UniProtKB/TrEMBL annotation:
PANTHER family: INOSITOL 2-DEHYDROGENASE, PTHR43593
Residue span, Gfo/Idh/MocA-like oxidoreductase C-terminal domain: 149-361
Species this protein is from: Brassica napus (Rape)
InterPro entries in alphabetical order: Gfo-Idh-MocA_inositol_DH (IPR050424), Gfo/Idh/MocA-like_OxRdtase_C (IPR004104), Gfo/Idh/MocA-like_OxRdtase_N (IPR000683), NAD(P)-bd_dom_sf (IPR036291)
Record's protein name: Oxidoreductase family protein
Residues annotated as domain Gfo/Idh/MocA-like oxidoreductase N-terminal: 9-135
Length: 366
């Protein structure tokens, strides 16, 4: 990093809860010669919280009410997009079209529709002077990263099944309650579960062929009303996915399961063995069919590079290190736009399967 004497200047578009989380993570890697210099957000209370946070970190911010003003200020080299899901498409298209190049880290989901994701992907192909990475950071959580390393490192066998359980708390309250409606989020299986569909593709080393899902809004948000409208986001689902190499994936989602010891439990089974990752316990287990239950190994997964745990067990910290390395030409973007598109498409297919109570082929949504 010593060769990069110029400070890499970051701007953050959307400075709500996740935007401020990015600000804190970037402050923890400031020794890598970077600074957050600008923010953009139309919501004055969010601006104020960010200004107070930045002052406590000894950073002075340029404050703008929209991403266009931030772009025109030309104060940044890099833009983190952490605004509400339904705003991603327009913001990304504007950044990509802007003459001065800005590297982009966009929060998941890439966009709320497959068509919007494709448009961003095509536009970005014309900008070889920009790195665009999608914020699917769950792959960096230490237990998940350890499981990925084991599964993809050879000797694990052919992966046949990937089962991911997320049992957690309901969606948090966001500015103007934007996350209570499918039209804004893309639907729960896009907004929340794109993380898990991304992990399934990684573990399976394959692309999805078809999706079957069952789900509903059975407990949460049913007594809430916003501008005369009742929320329509599902709070539980089972999703089964078939991959082009014969592997199967299953997602078990429940968002009224605060009584769970672990929020995520990931199980990957091959023809010769099995691996599991438990979050937040930070436990990884490996066993073989030959060795049986008595020889299952249990490992506490840790990553000494993490200096700030934050909201996602250190994965956002590692995501920023990887992204910075990519924009400095030391590696490729770890999670590219194709990954972002496929994670959204799998979620869209699952939402459609629930809505129409049928099997959905990926060709339909892609």
């Amino acid at each position: 990093m010593a060769a990069n004497s110029a400070i890499t200047k970051y701007g953050i578009v959307g400075i709500g809860m996740m935007g401020r989380e990015h600000l804190i993570n970037l402050h923890h890697i400031r020794h890598q010669n970077l600074a957050v210099v600008s923010i953009a957000d139309p919501h004055p209370p969010s601006q104020l919280l960010a200004i107070e946070l930045a002052q406590s970190l000894k950073w002075d911010l340029n404050v703008f009410s929209g991403h266009e003003e931030l772009l025109e200020s030309e104060t940044c080299d890099v833009i983190v997009v952490s605004s509400p899901n339904m705003t991603h498409h327009r913001i990304l298209m504007d950044i990509i079209a802007y003459p001065k190049p800005h590297h982009i880290l966009v929060e998941k989901p890439l966009c709320t529709t497959v068509a919007d994701c494709k448009e961003v992907l095509e536009a970005a192909k014309k900008r070889s002077d920009m790195v665009v990475q999608v914020g699917l950071e769950y792959r960096y959580m230490p237990p998940v990263a350890k499981l990925i390393e084991k599964v993809r490192g050879g000797g694990f066998g052919d992966v046949k099944m990937v089962a991911i359980r997320e049992h957690r708390f309901p969606f948090l309250v966001k500015v103007n309650n934007w996350n209570r409606f499918n039209v804004n989020t893309g639907g729960t299986l896009v907004e929340k579960c794109c993380h898990f569909f991304d992990l399934m593709r990684l573990f399976a080393s394959a692309d999805p062929v078809c999706v079957m899902a069952s789900g509903g809004m059975d407990v949460n948000h049913k007594d809430e009303v916003y501008d005369g409208k009742v929320p329509d986001i599902i709070d539980n689902a089972y999703v089964i996915i078939e991959f082009d190499n014969g592997c199967r994936g299953m997602l078990d989602l429940c968002m009224f399961a605060e009584g769970s010891k672990n929020e995520q439990e990931i199980s990957v089974t091959s023809d010769i063995g099995k691996g599991e990752a438990l979050v937040p316990e930070g436990i990884v287990r490996f066993g073989t069919r030959e060795g049986g239950r008595e020889h299952v190994q249990t490992i506490k997964a840790e990553d000494e590079r993490i200096k700030y745990e934050g909201l996602h067990h250190g994965s956002s910290y590692l995501e920023h290190l990887m992204f910075l390395s990519a924009i400095r030409g030391e590696r490729r973007a770890a999670v590219d736009l194709e990954d972002g598109l496929m994670a959204v498409a799998m979620g869209v297919a699952a939402q459609l399967s629930i809505q129409e109570r049928r099997y959905v082929s990926m060709d339909e949504v892609l």
